[in-house]
């Protein structure tokens, strides 16, 4: 069983009358348990569990018996690194962190992986319009986003939502009058282009 033990050996010395000369003590430690490492991801989460900010990664290792030697990680399958302090992940796209710890007794934790996705880039919008019969204009928004994709396009008239279109081509037909049209495209992460 894991823990610290004290081994005492008592011998009978026939020629020695000192009471402690025949006692030998030895401290032993037994550690067959792997360390445990937990993680914390800190950032702003948008829709569909995508982060819309940089993500700070904190690794929190512990070892109950012999103590820790080091914690290691790999970001996106890259080189093995020794963890010393929280670090930031800033690039858009999917990310994977593999992490584990090693204790003084040589026990190595099974490697764990956590995945997350970042999209901090606004979508690209190209708005066109054309007349459609009497008193109508059809607005079409060509939208693209190379990371999380487009979730929906919202059509506003005078700051009031008129419709939401969830599939391409994104279009809305409005009656002709003097108005200002605002059309934000909303990423799959919930960030809009306004």
From TrEMBL:
InterPro entries: Ig-like_OmpL47-like. This is Ig-like domain-containing protein.
